[in-house]
Amino acid sequence: MAKILIAEDSATSVELLKRALSPLGHTLIVASNGQDAEQTIRNEHPDLVILDIIMPKMNGFQLCRTLRSDPAHENMPIIVITSMDRESDRYWGMKQGASEYLVKPVDPSVLVQKVQNYLR
Question: Looking at the DSSP assignment, which residues form a beta bridge with residue 50?
Answer without folding.
Answer: 6, 79
